[in-house]
Amino acid sequence: MTEGLEKRVRRYVRVRCEIDADGSLTPIAVLWSPGHAYEITKVSRRESWACLGTGRGVRFTVWFGGYQTHLWWDTNRWYVMSRPPRAARVPKAPAF
After folding, report:
1. pLDDT digit string (tens) for 2-48?
2. Are the C-beta atoms of residues 13 and 80 closer than 8 Å to each other?
3. CA 23 to CA 11: how far, in whole Å?
4. Are 44 and 61 in contact (CB under 8 A)?
5. Three-state DSSP class for 88?
6. In angstroms, rounded to a whole number, what is the distance separating the alpha carbons of residues 28 and 72?
7. H or E element: which one contains 10?
8. Which residues partner with 38 through β-bridges?
9. What is the mean predicted confidence (pLDDT) over 51-80?
10. How far is the C-alpha of 95 from the C-alpha of 74, rounded, in Å?
């Protein structure tokens, strides 16, 4: 059933957000790495979500960098689920 899907890992990111007078949290930009900030162009959904570790959090469906993805707020940190870094490719020994 999950054939072909890559395992995803948490990648903690910095997020610029706004907090309304009623306490609602709205992400407006993802600071991916130094010098790489992506404006969130659309937030389409905000929902409570079970997070590993704390047991609860908020999942936002957002668009940034031209892609739709999920952005999680887990009590005190933001993260996205991303592909793990690729391992360095080791050349095969020649066959004799």
Report:
1. 443 467 788 899 999 999 999 888 999 998 888 888 999 999 888 87
2. yes
3. 25
4. yes
5. coil
6. 13
7. strand 9-19
8. 30
9. 82
10. 51
Question: How many other β-carbons are positioned within 10 Å of the β-carbon of residue 72?
Answer: 18
Burial class, 57, CB count within 10 angstroms (exposed 0-12 / middle 13-18 / buried 19+): buried
17's torsion region: left (phi>0), alpha (psi -120 to 50) or beta? beta
pLDDT, one tens digit per residue, over 81-96 is 887 776 656 666 666 5
CA angle, residues 37, 42, 46, in degrees to nearest 5: 105
Could you write out the DSSP letters of every residue in 50-85? --TTTS-EEEEEEEETTEEEEEEEETTEEEEEEPPP
